[in-house]
Amino acid sequence: MQTIRLSPSTPSSAANRGGNPRLHSLWILFFAILALPSIGCVRRRMTVRTNPAGATVSVDNQVIGTSPAASSFVYYGTREFRIEKEGYKTETIRRRFNPPWYEMPGLDFISETLWPGDLRDERIIDVELVPQTLAPTSEVVQRADSLRTQSQTGMVNAPR
Q1: pTM of the predicted model, to two decimals?
Q2: For 121, left (φ over 0), alpha (ψ -120 to 50), or beta?
Q3: What string of H, E and C letters represents the secondary structure of 41-100?
Q4: Cβ distance 149 to 156 under 8 Å?
Q5: Is the separation of the CB atoms in 74 and 97 below 8 Å?
Q6: Among 39, 108, 114, 137, which residue has the least CB neighbours within 10 Å?
Q7: What is the CA 62 to chain-centroid distance, rounded?
Q8: What are phi and psi of 7, to 5 degrees?
């Protein structure tokens, strides 16, 4: 049986695994950078307030609730808001949401992933509801007679 002894000058396999200390530092830095995305984020929220409150609010044909209603959003661009309340005219509003400066291409990567805190983008839409007015009965009857006459002659014009 033969015994093999390593002399102090012979590098051990543990030392060989260690490799270059600068390379280890680069790997640690790399994994630290990968861990950073878990700390930053941008929170986007839109709130619709009406006067009077209590109107049903839809955004892009999706009901989000009764005013004041809030919802988060992901993408910027044009949104269509529909506000309905009994006794008031239905309002349809198109509003364009432009991105803030920190969401411009290139900077958005930093704000969404590397920024160490939360960024908030709050959009508020205020709507004044107008009471619905009913046309006088005589005007409605006059329009009905006009349409009846036009349909009998075969020439129907769109109501004004």
Answers
A1: 0.58
A2: beta
A3: EEEEEEEEEEECCCCEEEECCEEEEECCEEEECCCCEEEEEEEECCCECCEEEEEEECCC
A4: no
A5: no
A6: 137
A7: 13
A8: -85, 160
User: Which domains does the chain possess?
Assistant: 27-128 (2.60.40)
Single-letter amino acid code for the residue at 53: A
Distance CA 76, CA 86 (A): 31
**Residue 47 near residue 122 (C-beta atoms within 8 A):** yes
Contact predicate 8/41, CB 8 Å:
no
117: its two tokens? 């805190």
Neighbours of 80 (CB within 10 A): 12
For residue 60, what are the contacts with CB-CB under 8 A and spacing of at least 6?
79, 80
Please report, in tens digits, the pLDDT of each residue of the chain (160 residues total). Answer: 555 555 555 444 444 555 677 777 777 777 666 655 556 677 889 999 999 999 999 999 999 999 899 998 888 889 999 999 998 999 999 999 888 887 778 776 776 776 677 778 899 989 999 998 887 888 888 988 888 888 888 776 666 6
Q: Are the C-beta atoms of 60 and 81 separated by less than 8 Å?
A: no
